[in-house]
Amino acid sequence: MKTITFIGNGNMALSIAQGLKKNYKIEVVGRSLEKLKKFEEKLGVEIEKHIMDGFHMQDKTVLLCVKPANVQEVSKLLQGQARVIFSVLAGTSLEKLRTNFNTQAVVRTMPNLAASVNRSMTTLTGDINFQEEAKELLGAIGSTRWLSSEKEIDIATGLAGSGPAYLALIAEALTDGAVKQGLKRDDAMAIMRGLFGGFGELIQDIHPALLKDGVMSPGGTTAAGYGALEDGNVRSACMDAIEQAYKRAKEL
Ligand SMILES: NC(=O)C1=CN([C@@H]2O[C@H](COP(=O)(O)OP(=O)(O)OC[C@H]3O[C@@H](n4cnc5c(N)ncnc54)[C@H](OP(=O)(O)O)[C@@H]3O)[C@@H](O)[C@H]2O)C=CC1
Ligand SMILES: O=C(O)[C@@H]1CCC=N1
Q: In this protein, which residues make up the domain named Pyrroline-5-carboxylate reductase catalytic N-terminal (predicted)?
């Protein structure tokens, strides 16, 4: 079994490790043995645990899962030259990764929180020689799409990386709206979850505009509600959200 070396033991590392644990041996490098043990407990399989300071990554296949602000601090603690680093760090350029880390190759990846349920939409870019390996590795946690530039992965970060948070806002707001009109909270939550489950399937094959046309009856309830969303500038706010997320990715 091939070994994947996670550097970082946070949420994203755990979500990805969940998807990989059946087909790969997992090694995790962190700052505290206690946290590494908790990671192992949550993952439910035995892992190799290593402290970051002085860790040798010679010829290893690394999944870098720390925060963008940790790059310099973390890189100073590591020794040896990695075979390849797959980074999940938002907005952190290939150049910055190559400058800080001793590695033969670098690929940027942008998974999302659905990695924990094997349904991540992960975008990829970087060393073209590792395109197939990146697709196979990150394909274990959902769908992948290789992009041809860093600009594109920074934009996609706003769409699919941050996207679950934006959709969660919509989900919570619609549920609150139903509660405000008198629906019980438990019922509203169950209905909202059913809505998102079915919508997730539908949107795979139908253009959003056609899906909307199919729901909206002349003079009906959907048209009434849709008008309120347009009055509230939801469309424009969604487009601004992607713009602001992209802008932020470039600053990281
Ligand atoms: N959350 C998400 O939905 C997504 C996140 N990402 C990216 O994933 C990366 C990790 O995010 P996430 O897992 O959510 O964050 P977490 O906060 O859960 O994990 C961060 C990890 O970095 C480690 N760390 C923090 N500070 C330092 C430091 N100074 N030196 C060494 N290690 C440090 C933490 O160690 P310790 O446990 O010891 O504190 C922890 O293991 C980020 O770069 C983010 O851009 C990408 C896509 C989606
Ligand atoms: O908010 C962030 O910066 C990270 C990247 C995408 C999702 N979470």
A: 3-91
Q: Which of 12, 100, 121 to mutate to test the pocket of ligand 1 (most atoms within 8 A of CB)?
A: 12
Q: Mutate which of 157, 159, 169 to test ligand 2's pocket (most atoms within 8 Å of Cβ)?
A: 157
Q: How far is the CA of 210 from the centre of ligand 2 (A)?
A: 30
**Is there a binding annotation on residue 11?**
yes
118-135 residues labelled b (16+ CB within 10 A) or e (exposed)? eebbbbbbbbeebeebbb
- Same domain, yes or no: 142 and 172: no
User: Could you tell me the residue range of the domain that residue 232 belongs to?
Assistant: 163-251
Domain count, the chain: 2
Kindly report, residue by residue over 175-207, the tens digit of the pLDDT.
Answer: 999 999 999 999 999 999 999 999 999 999 999
Task: From the CA of 249, give the closest atom in ligand 2.
Answer: 3
Does some domain include residue 191? yes
Q: What is the pLDDT of residues 108-153, one digit of tens each?
A: 999 999 998 899 999 999 999 999 999 999 999 999 999 999 999 9
Task: Confirm whether 204 is domain-assigned.
Answer: yes
* ipTM for the predicted complex: 0.97
CB 12 within 8 Å of CB 19: no
